[in-house]
Amino acid sequence: MASSSHHLLNLLFFVSIFFTSINDSFARPPTNICPHFDCGKGDVIRYPLWHQSQSPEHCGYQGLSLSCQGQNPVIILNNNFYKIRSINYSENSLVVSYADQIQNPNCPKIPSNLTAKLTSPVFNYTSGNKLLTFFYNCTLYPPSQQDITCFQSGTKRSFVFSAGAVPEFDWHANCESTATIPVGGAAAFDDGELLISIFARALTEGFKLTWRTTDGACQACEAADSDGFCGYSTNGTDGGQNFFCICPEGRRSISCYGDGKLFHISNLLI
Ligand SMILES: *[C@@H]1O[C@H](CO)[C@@H](O)[C@H](O)[C@H]1NC(C)=O
Ligand SMILES: *[C@@H]1O[C@H](CO)[C@@H](O)[C@H](O)[C@H]1NC(C)=O
Ligand SMILES: *[C@@H]1O[C@H](CO)[C@@H](O)[C@H](O)[C@H]1NC(C)=O
Ligand SMILES: *[C@@H]1O[C@H](CO)[C@@H](O)[C@H](O)[C@H]1NC(C)=O
């Protein structure tokens, strides 16, 4: 009796180890198919981010390709390179820096070609950020507004506001240029005077990008009852992206437990 219950305990122990390790291997994509990488500082970068050298076939979301500049991971947004400061996989976010976009960190001016396109199929630019609006070199302005002194140029003045709290005035008619950009980090942006004193630091801290996939096939592949990982291959002739779902037993065309056709199984067994 004692020996058979011992047996049973052993069996339960074995079964629970077995399932734990299965769950672990399912919790993350297999690295032989979805390779991790780092840029030399040891911060591991992984699914759904991917290295651009993994083209024309990659495991990860569309638009989340990174590369390395020296030891820094960088991402291209609207044709500009941004250094990645940190990645948070539990909230699907990364923080990018404006360091390469601004010249004088003590009095940083946003280049007029930078104004981020604030909509993207991949990123939410607003979650975790505040939007700042700058008006540069205004010839007329409301007399009560405090300006950014480091930008003073003759009689022209420059201003910064929270995007939702721009004082009523015809700024566009009276200023040379304007830019609206997201910033994260640096705390309270509600008070105009405070904003003037902290905008440089806020820019140095960069902004947060929260990623997601809007691809229905990819969402089905990752759904809880499927537990797959999204992959794409570029179609040589028209450059289109063909979706595939990476499952424990190989690639499927839709989801791991759907009836999507299994293919390329031979080189993807894990
Ligand atoms: C924006 O302007 C800067 C400096 O003029 C330039 O280096 C950068 O390549 C430009 N970016 C784009 C996307 O045109
Ligand atoms: C990542 O995000 C989670 C959820 O918002 C948060 O609890 C955690 O502190 C973050 N990790 C880091 C390193 O910031
Ligand atoms: C971005 O995230 C915020 C906060 O989570 C949300 O209110 C907003 O609707 C999202 N925007 C888009 C375009 O998904
Ligand atoms: C304002 O205009 C001057 C030239 O009149 C220029 O040198 C300066 O860079 C401009 N400042 C800003 C913040 O755009």
Write the layout of secondary structure elements.
Layout: H1 2-27, E1 50-51, E2 57-59, E3 65-69, E4 72-77, E5 80-88, E6 93-96, E7 123-124, E8 130-138, E9 157-162, H2 171-174, E10 175-183, H3 192-205, E11 207-211, H4 216-222, E12 229-234, E13 241-247, E14 250-252, E15 262-263
Parallel strand pairs: 1-3
Antiparallel strand pairs: 2-12, 3-4, 4-5, 5-6, 6-11, 7-11, 8-9, 8-10, 12-13, 13-14, 14-15
The site of one 2-acetamido-2-deoxy-beta-D-glucopyranose has 3 residues, from loops.
Strand percentage: 25-35%
Radius of gyration: 25 Å
Helix count equals 4
Low-confidence parts lasting 5 or more residues at pLDDT below 50?
8-27, 264-270
Q: Looking across the biggest beta sheet, what order are the strands in? A: 1-3-4-5-6-11-7
Heteromolecules bound: 2-acetamido-2-deoxy-beta-D-glucopyranose
Mean residue pLDDT: 81
Share in helix: 10-25%
Give helix and strand order, one letter per element, not per position.
HEEEEEEEEEHEHEHEEEE
Q: Distance between the terminal alpha carbons, to the nearest Å?
A: 40 Å
Quick one: how many beta strands? 15
Q: Note the overall shape.
A: elongated
Q: Specify the structural class.
A: alpha+beta
Question: How does the major sheet shape up?
Answer: 7 strands, mixed
Protein model, in words:
It is elongated, with a radius of gyration of 25 Å. The protein is of the alpha+beta class and 270 residues long. 19% of the residues lie in helices and 29% in strands. It starts with a helix and ends in a 7-residue tail after the last strand. The chain is built from four helices and 15 strands. Strands 1-3-4-5-6-11-7 form a seven-stranded mixed sheet, with no helix packed on it. Strands 2-12-13-14-15 form a five-stranded antiparallel sheet. The protein has a three-stranded antiparallel sheet with strand order 9-8-10. Strand 3 and strand 4 (72-77) form a beta hairpin. Residues 124, 126-127 line the site of one 2-acetamido-2-deoxy-beta-D-glucopyranose.
